[in-house]
Amino acid sequence: MSRRRLETEGLELGGGLEVLLAAALEGMAAGERVEVLTSSRSTALELHGWARSAGHRSVGERMPAGGPYAVEIERGSFARVLAGPLPGRASGPPLRDGELHTADLRRAVDVPASVDGAAGFAPLGAIAELGAPAFRWTFNERDAIWADNVAELAEQGSAAQWDASRDIPWDAARGLADFMERAVSQVMTFIAQNEYAALYVPAAFIANINPRYHEVLLWLAGHVHDEARHIEVFTKRSLIGGQSSYALASTELSLHTLLEEPDFSGAALLLNVLGEGTFLDLLRFVERHAPDAATRAAAALAHRDEVRHVHFGISHVRRRIAADPAQAAVLVDAAERRAGKLTQMSGLSPLLSEGLTVMAAGSLQPAELSDGAAAVRQLMATMEVNRIRRLQAAGFDLRTAQHVSDLHTPNLM
Amino acid sequence: MSRADADVRVGAVAYHPRIVTIWETFLEHFERDGVTTDYILYSNYERLVAAVLAGDVEIGWHTNTAFVALEQELGGEGRILGMRDVDAEFATVIVTRRGEAFDDVRGLAGKRLALGSRDSGHAAILPLHYLAEQGLDAAAECELVRFDTDLGKHGDTGDSELRVIRAVSEGAADAGALGETTLAAFRAELVPAAAGLEVAWRSPAYYHCNFTALPSLDEELAERWQAALLAMSYDDPDMRQAMTLEGVKRWLPGDRSGYRALAEAMAGGSAGAGGSSGA
Predict the structure, then answer these.
(1) Phi then psi for A34, rounded to 5 degrees?
(2) Which of A178, A332, B67, B82 is in the most buried spot, having the most CB atoms within 10 Å?
(3) ipTM of this complex
(4) pTM > 0.90: yes or no
(5) What is the model's pLDDT at position B1?
(6) Dihedral-angle region of residue B41 (phi above 0 means left; psi in -120 to 50 means alpha; beta otherwise)
(7) Minimal Cα–Cα distance from B208 to chain A, Å?
(8) Please, what is the end-to-end C-alpha distance for chain B in angstroms?
């Protein structure tokens, strides 16, 4: 039986001695002994109870008058943590010009194709202790949720944060003519309504994603945060001029179906690729025709975020189809199911198209309204062309892309 | 199988809601090990002892005080089936404010000594007994400051010991007795009152709780139950939490060698539960 010594001077229990004892005992095998030396008689007397409470045994003491005092402790036979030993210290993830990037945390380790659906909140690299309660995650397969650049996209989201209270020149939105304020307020309300759906869809997935797919979780949390700010900024813009507007039932109908898509890839197609993709063109249009700098800034900042979301959607869907070509038909089916629920929708709400037309016209003069209407028609055409282009980028052939784009036409989001 | 048909009924005292968690978990272990077991909870140890004597339960999970009382009633020896690792070498400590520790128990004469519940072996009965052995009749020579909370639970709740250390910490007593593992728990939980205290005296070691059956319990059943108890492992992820709550890392077969002092104290009475009263 080997024997060690631990000099503790006057350190007391409750005053740091536990740390020293734990470090000493950690490196010892069950049954090994350590002689703890202390200058404090009180500490020596108290060490026996500490040892037994901690699962060890005190097997002897020396208490000479005046000290120093010694208590011999034998290490107990239990594992302090119910898990295998920690691996030896390694070099740690690399830095790029001093920056620590999320993608580099994985290093050489591949993202596992599937993970334990009962595992808990063990951060990357941590070893989970046994005995934790069983969780029941729904998304435990990499290909169902992954995008190759998800770590980079999550980081870009963090880096591109902005402030809807301070980063918008709100003063500039004051004092528009009534007809214009009414048009802008209606368009802003419509956009804000859509941003709610864009928040609730990823939010509903977050609680079901296996935490081992850390990057997807970070991405979705950022996505939700982006949408929260979009709701905020477009609500603020709709209210700044003192003009109320309608939350239209037809918009609700369309968004309601979006929330019903249970499949992650289906939601990525419908929301990220089709909905937010179409919104890229809408936001660009609003930015170009905004009657004031506040509306312009809000549209520009939201556009920057939506580019990221669309990028994720395309990247995910492309990867999913590449890994399993049968998924293309499943995804088309998701778009068809949504369209099937929207048979009563006939197209863009007149209130929205009128609002966009007035914004593009800049006045209620017939000639300018004619130009405005042409701009809105052009927007619809641009949306369609870009939708097909994005669907092709996501891995659909041209015919399928046209079909899915047609199914989406009555919705913007 | 209904638990009503279990091979063994264990009686225990419900000194905290966690007792249900502990026993619900332990029962799974006994069932896996092939000795179906049920538990019956009592609100105090007097009722538990009566239940063991009446045969309402086959095994009682007794404090040392309850065990000695059981044997006094039984007029003979109970059958010890197991105890926790911490029960096999228990001790009481007397704490003072830092810097006020005494080297000799005679130093406590004339001082205020705080004690826990008068039916607690570790926080009242045994400290008085051992102090008397070492030459201090504390009941006569000290001002006893008693905290008789949770009577019937024999100090299991730790409430009276918390009051003891608060009394010492706040200056309402000069010294106080408590179980050494209770002090370790207060330290681990960073209880503020424990911070300024130090241990001045440690009693000789004695035994605390044990599982006791009547001598009439079927030999083969007793052995199977004991084997299952001893097989319970702190390294079993399904058991760790319940064993932590029970304050055990390893079950031992136990024996009766560590109860003599308490039996003497309870038989003598001078230092026992009927001693002088303070607060």
Answers:
(1) -135, 135
(2) B67
(3) 0.90
(4) no
(5) 75
(6) beta
(7) 13
(8) 51
The region of weakest confidence among A102-111, A165-174, A368-377, B201-210 is A102-111
* For residues B222-229, average pLDDT: 98
Count residue pairs from A and B with Cβ separation < 8 A.
Answer: 81
**Which of chain B's residues have a Cβ under 8 Å away from the Cβ of A41?**
101, 103
Interface test with A, best of B165, B168, B202 (most A CBs within 10 A): B202
**Domain that residue A181 falls in:** 142-408
Residue owning tokens 């020293």: A20
Name all domains of chain B by residue range, CATH numbers in brackets.
3-87+207-264 (3.40.190.10), 91-204 (3.40.190.10)
What domain count does chain A have? 2
A3 has a pLDDT exceeding 70 = no
Shared-domain flag, residues A275 and A396: yes
Same domain, A199 and A288: yes
Residue numbers in B near A46 (CB within 8 A): 93, 180, 183-184, 198-199, 202
Chosen from A11, A38, A41, A53 to mutate, greatest number of chain B CBs within 10 A: A53
Min Cα separation B56/chain A (Å)? 33
pLDDT digits over A52-99, tens only?
Answer: 999 999 999 999 999 999 999 999 999 999 999 899 998 989 999 999
Distance from the A410 Cα atom to the nearest Cα atom in chain B, whole angstroms: 55
With a CB-CB cutoff of 8 Å, which residues 205-224 of chain A face chain B?
Answer: none
> What sign has the CA pseudo-torsion B121, B127, B130, B135?
negative
The answer to whether residue A186 is domain-embedded is yes
Residue B8's pLDDT is: 97
Inter-chain CB proximity A52 and B181 less than 8 Å = yes
Nearest to A131 among B181, B185, B241 (CB): B241
Cβ distance of B101 and A42 shorter than 8 Å: yes
- Name every chain A residue with its beta carbon within 8 A of the beta carbon of B194: 14
How far is residue A156's CA from residue A154's CA, in Å, rounded to a whole number?
5
The pLDDT value recorded for residue A344 is: 72
Residue in B89, B235, B241 closest to A52 by CB: B89
**What pLDDT digit, counting tens, does each position of A212-267 carry?**
999 999 999 999 999 999 999 999 999 999 999 999 998 998 999 999 999 999 99
Same domain, A58 and A162: no
What is the predicted pLDDT for the residue at B275?
A: 37
A249 lies in the same domain as A382: yes
A chain contacts of residue B240, beta-carbon cutoff 8 Å: 82, 131
What is the CATH number for A322?
1.10.620.20
The answer to whether residue B277 scores a pLDDT higher than 70 is no
Q: What is the pLDDT of residues B69-102, one digit of tens each?
A: 999 999 989 999 999 999 999 999 999 999 999 9
The alpha carbon of residue A27 is apart from the nearest alpha carbon of chain B, in Å, by 18
B270 has pLDDT over 70: no
